[in-house]
Amino acid sequence: MAGFSAAQAQEAEPERTEQPAEGADEALSMNQVVVTGSRIANPNLTSSSSVTVLGAEEFDARGVLRVEDLLSTLPQTLSGESSTSGVSGAQATVNLRGLGSKRTLVVVDGKRLPYGSPINVAADLNQIPSQLVERVEVLTGGATAVYGSDAIAGVVNFIMKRDFEGLEADVQGSLFFADNNNSNIERVLADYNQPDADSITDGESVDFNLIAGRNFDDGRGNITAYFGYSKDKAVRWEDRDITSCPFSTRDGGTDFSCSGSGSMPANTRYLRTGADGFDLVEDEQTGELRPYDQSVDAFNFAYGNYLQRPRERYTYGAFVRYDLREDMEFFLDFSVADNQTDAQIGAAGLATGTTTTINCDNPLLSGDMQAAFCDPSVVTVDENGVPRAPLRIGRRNLDYPRVAEFGLNTQRVVGGIRGEVMGGWDYEVFVQNSVVDYQEVLLNDISVSRVERSIDVVTDPATGNPVCRSVLTGEDPDCVPFNVFMPGGITPEANDYVTTPSLRVGETEQFVFGGSLSGDLGQYGVVSPFAQDGFGAVVGFEYRKDSLSLSPDSADTRTSVRAPVDGEVPVREVFAEVQAPLVQDAAFAEELTLTGAYRYSDYYDTTGGQDTYSLGLAWRPISDLRLRTQYQRATRSPNPIELYSPREFDFGNLATLPNGLQDPCAGDFDGSTSTPEPYLSFEDCALTGVTQDQYGTILDSSGNIDILTGGNEALEPEVSDTWTAGFVYEPSFLPGFVASVDYFSIEVEDYIGSIEPSETINQCVTTGDARYCGLISREPSGTLFLGDGDAYVDTALINTGQLKTSGVDLSASYVFGLDRFGADRFGDVRLSYVSTILDELSTQSLPGEPANECAGMHGGACNNPAPEYRHRVSADWMLDNVRAQLSWRYISSVDEFSVSPSAVNKLEATSYFDASVQYDVSEDLELRAGVNNLLDQDPPLTSLAGYGGDENDGRGNTYPQIYDTQGRFIFAGATVRF
Predict the structure, then answer these.
(1) C-alpha–C-alpha distance, residues 335 and 432, integer Å
(2) How many Cβ atoms sit within 10 Å of the Cβ of residue 751?
(3) What are the CA-CA distances from residue 105 to residues 65, 349, 538, 568 (Å)?
(4) pLDDT at 83
(5) Can you tell me the distance from the alpha carbon of 271 to that of 294, in angstroms, rounded to the nearest whole number?
(6) Which three-class secondary structure state does DSSP give residue 241?
(7) CA-based Rg of the chain, rounded to a whole angstrom?
(8) What is the C-alpha separation between 963 and 742, in angstroms, rounded?
């Protein structure tokens, strides 16, 4: 059965003589071997880098429909965006070493994939049909010198099935089953009168793939075509007890409580800050005004949110090759992936962060409201003579959940020729073009301008009925009064008026023209006097242009960032690589090989020239032991989103979803409400811009502060230094056993990012440093979320300080027949173990500042969990036509990154057990079935998980990118060959 082992990857390399060269851009002659991370084909030498291999059977053993789900089980991956979770975009990504998916290069048969979409440049794994994957090779650590920019964290290389003959159909069905029996969470839900989900079966998925291939013209050519279809049904937050309400903490951080948004669906919230301020709600039963109480009035926005988004995907394409002559081959790859998915979040409405006023002649106001809202001390008269008072309103339209419909259509064509020239030199010249069309439609959002007009209501002098002022003036004859001042006062016509769709469309395009020439210099006498094999070399060139554009409509909603982006990054590159066997078949040096690579990249329109290089050494002192080490200098040039995105405000307002960011200076000293007192002293808060008059009166943000985002055309490239060292041990006295240990250290200087808002505030109050304090802006009442553009924390992109990680990868496997133990008829067993020990994962916000150590931490400046230890252990049993696997995935405990951590926010160590079985009924029919998360283990829960959808956010009180959230995953499938 195919393995899951870095050690096995190294052992398997010399045996790959019947496959085309794997994972490189150079000539692919049939009897050569290319290791991912190198362009030189040599079946006799050892790589100086560690490569982890996932075989095709591993996909079947886990019932994988989405390749990101399989990659997430690797200990080297810390997070990634899933195509079925979150609320932003439709992509699926992989994030090696926790350095960010945009620092992980994804290639197919050695050629890079395009930007995933105009909102996220990381490659979209939805392009990869899982049943067409022969294997996946994962190299962690810099590989820019070999593959170009974006390979700082490593390379994921998908090797596809080619030269296929025949017809193969594969079908699989799967679903989730959740017990929903977490007694601790049931108690919390009962305390807050929230419904508790029963056991449930949902999230059904179906996947169908068809592969057809044929040789033609007496074997000179082959065409392999494929078609795939998959469909996933939704899994919703409210259908799991652990996600039935958003968590905050209580009892000094020792227990969870149900939290929510301050914009409610029934009892409208009215706010005014300052000396004459108030925070009132209209009681839904009595209609009377009373003080807002977060513990009672907060809206549970869990309902309708997706743990698994509904998705429908089509993939199809073909691989063609034809021998134009004996030493020249034409090749063409064509692929299309069409992915449609929906995201759903809580109902929209009037955001308490929206600045507005109320006209005091409004006939919808009750007498109590008139008196409260229109105190003479705050009333002003506008240019039209209308008396107005400042008022902020929080009210959701519960009947109108917001749905974002995402569409991604990716088309990719690669074509060229390759062959042999000059008596043994292999060449390749190719052209590659990829286009990704992106569309996002947001339904049932609220138009800010329409809301303002629909609340500005007066009495119609002709009828005596309430009417929009804009109807009488002729500004908007279609306006309908939006009566949020009386329980049940909003009509369907008013809802239809204020509700509006919005659209943004975009495109990314990648054009690549490249070529390479590789050969054995030994034929010219370039051979070490202590070796038999000659030096191998590759030289080549590449021109690449990545461009993207994003165009939103003019809808004036506040749910998401809607700014246009347009830009391109062209680059011209030349590269070379050498592999030099120095010693072979000598005492204490059966092999000693030096490797080196160099690439010069000219980003002539943006960041200029860059040099990247690597140097490695592989030494086999005895046949049982192979040692390897490598140093790499890698770079990543900023992409168009990072360079050209305009600076704008990302409003984390209460009509959308909390972003989990707290203002430690918010709160009051009024014991009549549940609002806490400020966490920090006035002296500390003054550093963040709080005045004496504001202190103690600032409205609680309820988990929201507004942030200023944007790109920066002055960005410089990231530069990283990677060092790896390790060994592979394969004892001759124990056939079938192989083990490897590899140390890695990656340090990124000037990494492109933003300073986390919580880090900005913490550093400001701790140090008083103007570099941090200057990033904080408060509106006149002191909040960080109520201003329309004057209350925020600046998080626009800059070249920050350092990003560092280090640790150790461990791998071992043992294959043996049970006949060794006298059980001749009981088949073979394979035991395998893969793990990562994380020693460091740190970020430095600015040069000279202390770093934040995130190994073993989550939340705050660390975002996603970074467990210090992860492993996967599996046992495979093979007997004739039967193969069975039992695996154990383990994730160590993770603490909260905080000066005062809450006990319940520690993520306990978690284990998952998976089981599967495959049965070959005949050569033409294979059946499989299995269960992942066999024991329905709940993920560890936290109140710190965010509510966004990218790889830096948790969701549903946990981190679905790392932990199993939906429950048991049950699958069954069949493969039929004709």
Answers:
(1) 12
(2) 23
(3) 21, 40, 21, 18
(4) 57
(5) 13
(6) helix
(7) 30
(8) 25
What was the pLDDT predicted at 662? Answer: 75
Q: Give the pLDDT confidence of 239-265 residue by residue, as tens digits.
A: 999 999 888 888 888 999 888 776 666
CA distances from 227 to 208, 230, 975 (A): 8, 10, 14
The CA–CA distances, whole Å, from 367 to 280, 403, 489 equal 15, 38, 16
DSSP string, 904-956: GGSB--EEEEEEEEEEEEETTEEEEEEEESTT-PPPP--S---S--STT--BT
d(Cα 193, Cα 678) in Å, to the nearest integer? Answer: 28
Q: Over the stretch 863-895, which tens digit does the pLDDT of each residue have?
A: 889 999 999 999 999 998 999 999 999 999 999
* Nearest Cα to Cα of residue 147 among 487, 635, 474: 635
Most distant CA pair in the chain, distance: 107
Contact between residue 65 and residue 207 where contact means Cβ atoms under 8 Å apart: yes
CATH number of 4-177+310-343+407-440+505-638+718-754+798-977: 2.40.170.20
* Residue for token pair 């904080």: 776
Report d(CA 643, CA 712) in Å as an integer. Answer: 5
Q: Contact, 410 vs 124, CB < 8 A? A: yes
What's the token pair of residue 120?
Answer: 């996220």
Positive or negative torsion for Cα 946, 950, 955, 958: negative
Q: How far apart are CA 133 and CA 136, in angstroms?
A: 7
3-state class (DSSP) for residue 239 = helix
From CA 773, how far away is CA 860, in angstroms rounded? 18
How is the chain split into domains, by residue range?
Answer: 4-177+310-343+407-440+505-638+718-754+798-977, 639-714+757-794
Amino acid in position 762: N
Query: What residue has token string 């065409």?
Result: 223
In three-state secondary structure terms, 154 is: strand
CB 829 within 8 A of CB 819: no
Tokens of 65: 């429909």
| 785-828 residue pLDDT tens | 776 678 889 988 999 889 999 999 999 999 998 877 666 678 89
Please state the three-class secondary structure of 868-880 as a single string: CEEEEEEEEEEEC
Mean pLDDT (whole number) for 471-476: 95
CB neighbours of residue 398 within 10 Å? 16
CA dist 279 and 297 (Å) reads 12
**Backbone angles phi and psi of 228, in degrees to 5:** -140, 145
pLDDT at 650: 64
Report in angstroms the alpha-carbon separations of 568 from 116, 242, 751, 787.
15, 44, 20, 34
Distance (Å, rounded) from C-alpha 457 to C-alpha 917?
67
Overall size of the chain counted in residues? 978
- Entry pTM: 0.87
Query: Looking at 140-149, 412-421, 752-761, which range is the least confident one?
Result: 140-149
Ramachandran category for residue 38: left, alpha or beta (phi over 0 → left; psi -120 to 50 → alpha): beta
Q: Which are the contacts of 605, defined by CB distance < 8 A and separation ≥ 6?
A: 568, 569, 570
Which positions ≥6 away from 463 have C-beta within 8 Å?
Answer: none
- Residue 452, both tokens: 């303002």
Q: Which two tokens stand for residue 844?
A: 């430095």
Residue 156 CB-density burial (10 A; 0-12 exposed, 13-18 middle, 19+ buried) = buried
Residue 678's φ and ψ, nearest 5 degrees, are -55, 140
Q: Quick one: tokens of 470?
A: 């804009």
